[in-house]
């Protein structure tokens, strides 16, 4: 046994010791299915038996099987079967785990060649692991033992600070006059000593350069210098349109005579640029011709967003003075940057209503993920908040694919996650298998009906979102074979449940398993841990040292739990701080329902 000495390796080895020494098959190796649980991560070795030498071939297979005990499964293929199509020039074959049905054929002259095949492979894997560990150690040395990649990046670029001359600097004195100059001002509130702020500042300036020809005014506030403005206390008779800023960096969209709008998306160039462009359009857009309606529904709102499909909502009313128009307009303002909204009235609205067999007033919702199907239709409720909630519900995908970008918005729903992890496809067969799994999950939602309202059925493609690998490993303590289905983020408890690997993922079976979890008949496979990030050493706990040196001063507060998700230079980091209140130590590894991005206060 050449695996590292660990509980998992020992358990796997003992399971292999219980497997049949030699299995005999009468079909071609390419038709033999990969091993089932619990041997799915085990290589398969095929030897061929001829009718004339069957007894000797079986003895040879048995001898090799003893030498491969704990390393691989050995199968003896009988060539007299018409199903065996392997040419006679080959006398052995093997299949590696995770390679689907791919089989490699060999012509061996010595049994030791098979052993060398697996030992060389393990040696290569060990060398790759050692190289990876060395790279990690080198990265750790770049910035001491804090292991803070963001701070390290800022530290390394400290001599190349971004040029901030392209943005307007807001102060307590010029705030109101600057905001009044433009219909839309985007303001970044930052701290120079905050690593995330400085990392995001470069992206903010890049967006500023992209919007140089637009009417959008890009600005920034150094909250280390203008503390009164960031605290929303300028001393001016004019009100400040936002609450005190306590998380950094924070981006606000400011319009004259309107409350500030928070940007709650990814801290990256593309996400911020897209949000600002969508926010700069009128909400709702008044559409007066059929051509304008077609353009609104089918064309990109800006050339820069070609290829991007936004969510859309279209309100239909008999007249511009209809009571529902004001409700729709208020909801549209709250959706700026996230949903394009349009307004139809008079004859055009009547025509649309007749074509789609709906009664006015009504709202059509066009989710970005829905294609060539009838859009959901909503009636007008009694309040903008209720209409806003209905629109967001209609935009929600029934089986969303989770990504780094959309995870916070789905977690904010407060539902338990029924989460399917699928691996990257290596061939057409793997692609069809993943598609079939997603269809089964869709069947769970449809078959479960109202019972599934408390759950958010979703999936993660680990090829497109490799961060999910560490998430899955942290859920269960080790990496299970894929696909893996887990139930997590239950509203009232921290347990994590894993769907039994011995059962296929099928809609009826999953629903029965969920019922067993609800009845308390299933044991949890893991727990959501406390993701606090304490200082690695006592002498790094600077706030504690300050409290000890100045006992009469106000108690220093440490940032609440933070989450960092790396991907394409985009960072999500979260923390909350409440004045005179200690941070909650029971937060989960994902952001909670609050929408703060990062805190250094």
From TrEMBL:
<dbReference type="Pfam" id="PF24510">
    <property type="entry name" value="TXNDC16_3rd"/>
</dbReference>
<feature type="region of interest" description="Disordered">
    <location>
        <begin position="552"/>
        <end position="601"/>
    </location>
</feature>
<dbReference type="InterPro" id="IPR057645">
    <property type="entry name" value="TXNDC16_3rd"/>
</dbReference>
<feature type="compositionally biased region" description="Acidic residues">
    <location>
        <begin position="122"/>
        <end position="142"/>
    </location>
</feature>
<feature type="signal peptide">
    <location>
        <begin position="1"/>
        <end position="19"/>
    </location>
</feature>
<feature type="compositionally biased region" description="Acidic residues">
    <location>
        <begin position="560"/>
        <end position="583"/>
    </location>
</feature>
<feature type="compositionally biased region" description="Polar residues">
    <location>
        <begin position="584"/>
        <end position="601"/>
    </location>
</feature>
<dbReference type="InterPro" id="IPR036249">
    <property type="entry name" value="Thioredoxin-like_sf"/>
</dbReference>
<keyword id="KW-0732">Signal</keyword>
<dbReference type="InterPro" id="IPR040090">
    <property type="entry name" value="TXNDC16"/>
</dbReference>
<protein>
    <submittedName>
        <fullName>Thioredoxin domain-containing protein 16 isoform X1</fullName>
    </submittedName>
</protein>
<feature type="region of interest" description="Disordered">
    <location>
        <begin position="121"/>
        <end position="142"/>
    </location>
</feature>
<dbReference type="Pfam" id="PF13848">
    <property type="entry name" value="Thioredoxin_6"/>
</dbReference>
<feature type="domain" description="TXNDC16 third thioredoxin-like">
    <location>
        <begin position="21"/>
        <end position="113"/>
    </location>
</feature>
